[in-house]
Amino acid sequence: MATILLSIKPEYANKIFDGHKRYEYRKRIPKKEVSKIVVYSSAPEQAVIGEVEVIKTLKMKSTPLWNCTKTNAGISRSKYREYFSECTIAYAFSLGSFKRYETPKSLADFNIRSAPQSFVYLDD
């Protein structure tokens, strides 16, 4: 089981920690099974704001995935469809318990020099 640091747009990152977004959608996922995501809220926030447990990873065509996850998607159907428009397979991390850091952290706190385009593995 791996821990990753994942770049997420601020509007979606904050919805995770407000409890309104229970799935994090991805076009590609890490090769290792993920048990925890450390959330980097991208520009303009540019800070590591918390961590969230991954219950499981879902993999299917985009329409069935939407039908399974839409009530806790934290994203509109149009944005979802736009995101997966070029994909034959869609992925979602099913999110569990979460912890927002009292004070946001920098990437340097995790020995990372620049924001990952997608994700980076963290040492446990």
Protein topology:
Layout (H helix, E strand, L loop, with lengths): L1 E7 L1 H8 L5 E4 L7 E8 L5 E14 L1 H8 L7 H7 L6 E16 L13 E4 L2
Parallel strand pairs: 1-3
Antiparallel strand pairs: 1-6, 2-5, 3-4, 4-5
Could you describe the 3D structure shown?
The chain has 124 residues and is of the alpha+beta class. 19% of the residues lie in helices and 43% in strands. The chain is built from 3 helices and 6 strands, in the order βαβββααββ. It has helices at residues 10-17, 62-69, 77-83; strands at 2-8, 23-26, 34-41, 47-60, 90-105, 119-122. The protein has a 6-stranded mixed sheet. The mean pLDDT is 95.
Q: What's the quick description here?
A:
It contains three helices and six strands; from the N terminus they run E-H-E-E-E-H-H-E-E. By secondary structure, the chain is of the alpha+beta class.
